[in-house]
Write a structure and sequence with these properties.
The protein is an all-beta fold. Strands 21, 22, 24, 26, 27, 28 and 30 form a seven-stranded mixed beta sheet that branches. Strands 11-10-13-18-15-16 form a six-stranded mixed beta sheet, with no helix packed on it. Strands 1-4-9-8-6 form a five-stranded mixed beta sheet, with no helix packed on it. It is globular, with a radius of gyration of 21 Å.
């Protein structure tokens, strides 16, 4: 967690998720920041857990920079297996995007790779492994690019990285899922989390909507559960900017600000034209929300919670003024959260929308698959079975995502921001994003400008769905 302004002196009552700075661009003595992919041990509900991490040389996870800096990073693989890190939300050259085979070879154990590219846009981003199921093992960290114009704001910045956690080997979980519905009740299958009470919202009538693939052992905020949450000291009457990142592998959350009303000011790192005020906000896998808070005067503690969609497990951090008693928050919410859909998406408008323009090319992608077989894909094909989506530099490209399955799919495009321009039959000039939720039985149309040549991943960001085949790519034609 990183704090700015004079309130930095307030500190935190617990160990925090530090976000260390990149060197400024333009200096002759600039050297790359060393970022390691390494094993580490954390404590989850009193038990030691060996996980991965993305620390710098001094042990601090995460990176921060400013618009105009260069992203100069030397990535070192300290694992005993291959790895590679994707800079989620950034728009690097294709050969530095961190996806094995599409952009660059995987990084072998003990090897290094140097990255160097421009950072033209501010935003809340993150980084994570794009190899196997390493992301489930917490190989992820924040990546914040700040706007220097925000330096004059007297507000405290708090970064929260959410995750779902399991003590089990993710490969064993995936093996159980891969057996499909014939593996009901086997480890990894969360039948209790599935809603069998109504018709599905897409696909075959009469089938139930499946909310969750995996029953996790815990839900984390900055590597901690609510049994021992991070407590961030804040100033009475102060202003706070929350940067909340859903780094979970297979869990959508509903954010709950409790007694506080917040103003949503950015989605996936892109500013909104009009702030959205509220106490609850939907946050799909891989999405990010920036929320501005104005705290009451006097002593107080303020839980900032994330509740698993359609369920009661929750995690979060606690904002507390100096001297305030911090009440224990249960790991189960009093009532189940709603399902993460498109209600919030319909209300979002980009502060800097795309210049209006008709599409030069449209690609239609049906999201296909089921829990019965646990085979997922686009247009009935798994990754590698179909041709990439062709684009040409300079084109305005539309992608129509139609979900024919009984599960939601957060779809992420690498290397390009896109604008949400239609939700089913409703046209809109929506938010700029890089990840959009596509609920069952709905379609979402996004538009992007083909201005970053190369070969780019397009995939569901539910890690198990992507691993099971729901991935394709966008390739520029010569």
């Amino acid at each position: 967690m990183m704090m700015t302004s004079r309130r930095r002196l307030l500190g935190s009552a617990a160990s925090t998720l530090a976000v260390a700075a990149l060197p400024r661009a333009g200096r002759a003595d600039d050297a790359p920041v060393e970022l390691r992919v390494a094993s580490r041990t954390i404590e989850v509900d009193g038990k030691a857990a060996k996980v991965y991490g993305l620390p710098q040389a001094d042990g601090t996870p995460g990176l921060t920079a400013a618009v105009g800096d260069r992203f100069r990073v030397q990535l070192k693989n300290e694992l005993t297996t291959d790895t590679l890190v994707h800079w989620h939300g950034l728009t690097p050259p294709s050969d530095q995007d961190g996806v094995p085979e599409l952009s660059q070879p995987a990084l072998a154990a003990g090897a290094n790779y140097s990255y160097d590219f421009a950072l033209p846009r501010a935003g809340t981003n993150w980084m994570h492994s794009h190899v196997g199921l390493q992301e489930q093992q917490l190989a992820a960290a924040p990546l914040i690019v700040r706007d220097p114009a925000d330096a004059s704001r007297d507000e405290q910045e708090v970064v929260v990285l959410l995750h779902d956690f399991t003590f089990r080997d993710p490969q064993e979980i995936y093996a159980g899922l891969s057996r499909g519905m014939g593996g009901m009740g086997m480890p990894g299958m969360d039948m209790a989390g599935m809603d069998h009470s109504k018709k599905g919202q897409g696909g075959m009538a009469g089938m139930a909507m499946d909310l969750h693939d995996v029953d996790f052992d815990a839900y984390l905020a900055n590597d901690r559960t609510l049994a021992d949450p991070e407590v961030v000291r804040v100033e009475p009457g102060g202003r706070v900017r929350l940067r909340i990142i859903n780094g979970a592998s297979a869990t959508n959350f509903v954010l709950d600000l409790g007694a506080l009303e917040g103003e949503l000011i950015a989605a996936d790192g892109h500013a909104l034209a009009v702030g959205i005020r509220g106490r609850r906000f939907e946050l799909a896998i891989a999405q990010r929300l920036d929320i501005r808070l104005s705290l009451p005067g006097g002593l107080g503690d303020y839980p900032i919670l994330a509740i698993r969609e359609g369920d009661r497990p929750q995690t979060g951090i606690i904002l507390a003024t100096p001297g305030a008693d911090v009440a224990r928050v249960p790991i189960q919410a009093q009532t189940a959260a709603g399902v993460v859909g498109l209600d919030l998406e319909r209300r979002l408008q980009a502060a800097e929308p795309q210049v209006p323009r008709s599409a030069d090319r449209t690609h239609a992608l049906d999201l296909t698959g089921s829990m019965m077989t646990y085979v997922w894909g686009f247009n009935g094909r798994r990754f590698g079975e179909g041709a990439p989506l062709a684009v040409r530099q300079g084109e305005r490209v539309h992608i129509v995502l139609r979900n024919l399955t009984e599960m939601s799919h957060p779809v992420h495009l690498h290397g390009h921001p896109f604008q949400v321009i239609a939700l089913s039959d409703q046209a809109l000039r929506g938010a700029l994003r890089d990840t959009v939720q596509v609920p069952p039985g709905t379609s979402v149309t996004v538009a992007f400008d083909a201005d970053n040549p190369g070969h780019w991943a397009l995939h569901c960001h539910n890690l198990y769905h992507m691993t099971a085949g729901m991935m394709t790519s966008v390739r520029y034609e010569a």
